[in-house]
Amino acid sequence: MESRVNFTVIGTQKGGTQALNQFLKAHPEIGMVTPPVIAPHFFDNEKIFSDIPDYEVYHRMYSEKSLAMLTGDVTPIYSYWPNAVARIKAYNPDMKIIFLLRDPVLRTYSHWNMEYSRGDEKLGFLKAILTENRRRAGGAHRIYSYLHRSLYAPQVVNLLEYFERKQCLFIKSDELQRSHVEVMSRIFSFLDVDSTIIPEQQSVHARHYPQMPSWLNFTLRLYFQRDIVSVEQLTGLDLKAWRLI
């Protein structure tokens, strides 16, 4: 089996990945999944990996034209889901990885707002995060992982256990919004496609929520402080805007 998908965006949910997906699709040298599929969710599919995985199932999500190009997969849960990164490595050891990171406090709150608006979450925000550990029963959970999924350091450590640093690009989602041209040029250079072709900036699925109480924002920043410092050390990103000090 010849590896066909060349890169993946593995993080993070509610971190601007849908916008990045649109920008990647707009580049003439990049092939993405065939609509209506948005995120392949191949490497986090436990049914597929209950036996020897059939990679043709994966490839059928793409057109022949897309597979003949530089081919990408945007599935943010890969960074968080157990064994997903190891499975990506087994599929294509040369895969390039883009990890999009958002302020963990904002990501946590946005994640809860999404699940609550869908009706998959019935609890208020404070009660939801206070009961999260019990509800996810210690492991990964697709819904009840507001805080757990926002702890990026273990995810970055796991990624770097399987892929060389030069295969990984870490981007802050607010930087993608604030410096669109510069960041997209950096991403395209990393992917070895024409970095002078910059898709027009657009807002994708932007939502506005009631502001979090300041005391809760402070408490969550205190909770994430140590993890943020670790992520800075692991990635070289400047995350002082996320920290208390």
From TrEMBL:
Ranges of residues in domain Sulfotransferase: 8-199
A Pfam family name for this chain? Sulfotransfer_1
- Which InterPro entries does the record associate with it? NST/OST, P-loop_NTPase, Sulfotransferase_dom
Q: Does the UniProt entry include the keyword Transferase? A: yes
Spell out the molecular function terms from Gene Ontology.
Answer: sulfotransferase activity
- Name-wise, this protein is Deacetylase sulfotransferase
What high-level taxonomic lineage is stated for the organism? Bacteria, Pseudomonadati, Pseudomonadota, Gammaproteobacteria, Arenicellales
The lineage's top-level taxon is Bacteria
| Keyword list, A-Z | Glycoprotein, Transferase
Say yes or no: keyword Transferase present: yes
